[in-house]
Write a structure and sequence with these properties.
The protein is an all-alpha fold and about 280 residues long. It has 12 helices and 2 strands, in the order αββααααααααααα. About 35% of the residues are buried.
């Protein structure tokens, strides 16, 4: 047996909201027919829906996705904002605690014994040149916002990480134990930023969109890398190559196996970079 509802117990009683029984509700949901008080009403194309029906519809509705399978979100680019924030916080720590730079900076020599520096150096920037941080943070925001919207949060994070690794691995490959470059430290998110640019270029080509703006960006920065002293053009090349390779994996993965190909491709590109670094150290 079931207990009668208040409306069944008293047919002449005013209808009340199921979620707020103390409130009279003469407006009914167009989907389920239950009374809904003003707090539980949601405007619909015709009439109103109750909050429960709106939530159920949102839960069962298919997600809107980008051309590369990422769920389209209305909120901010969380991964991009986090990475920019990490760069800024790390820069502030460099200013107040010089040992922070010493603990995270990368050179081929120190990377051989402390391999985590292949990635940690990405969040360091020149303390005497705030434009270094500003330029990288700005480009990371511009490119990261686009890439994260197209690929989603996880693939954006993987792309940034692999591109950063690609930059420091290339620095290692083009250095020699007999040269000063072996012990020269390199810092900055430029390798990762170039990786995002490389992936974005591949995605534009995949969608058959005009890539001229990103090509101009790459050419100008490539020239600066060779003209201006103190810029690691090796890191730019390595980051771009790794980002473009992984971007191609994401952009051309078959729709029905997109997740699997993405995971396998990410691991494969990262593994190739690690193997190249190990072989370099073994034969350097």
């Amino acid at each position: 047996m079931t207990a009668p509802s208040p409306e069944q117990a008293r047919p002449d009683a005013a209808p009340v909201c199921p979620r707020h029984p103390d409130r009279v509700a003469y407006v009914r949901c167009q989907r389920c027919g239950r009374p809904a008080c003003p707090e539980c009403q949601r405007p619909a194309a015709v009439g109103v829906h109750c909050i429960d029906c709106v939530r159920e519809a949102a839960r069962t509705a298919p997600a809107t996705r980008s051309a590369f399978g990422a769920t389209l979100r209305n909120g901010p680019p969380v991964v991009t904002l986090t990475l920019v924030g990490m760069c800024v916080v790390s820069f502030l720590l460099q200013l107040v605690a010089p040992a922070w730079t010493d603990a995270l900076i990368f050179s081929p020599a120190i990377g051989e014994v402390e391999p985590w520096r292949f990635l940690t150096t990405t969040f360091l920037h020149s303390q005497g040149m705030i434009l270094h941080l500003g330029f990288n943070a700005y480009l990371l925001w511009i490119l990261g916002t686009q890439v994260e919207a197209a690929l989603g949060r996880l693939r954006m994070l993987a792309l940034f990480t692999v591109s950063a690794l690609g930059g420091t691995v290339m620095v290692t490959l083009l250095s020699s134990r007999t040269e000063l470059s072996w012990v020269t430290g390199v810092i900055g998110a430029s390798g990762a930023v170039f990786g995002l640019a490389g992936a974005f270029l591949v995605m534009l080509r995949r969608l058959r969109r005009d890539p001229r703006q990103i090509i101009v960006f790459l050419v100008l920065n490539a020239v600066l890398g060779f003209v201006v002293s103190g810029i690691s053009w090796q890191g730019h090349i390595g980051g771009f190559a790794a980002g473009a390779a992984l971007g191609a994996v994401y952009a051309y993965a078959p729709r029905e196996r997109r997740a699997l190909v993405g995971v396998v491709g990410t691991v494969a590109v990262a593994a190739v970079l690690v193997i190249l670094a190990v072989l370099k150290y073994a034969g350097a």
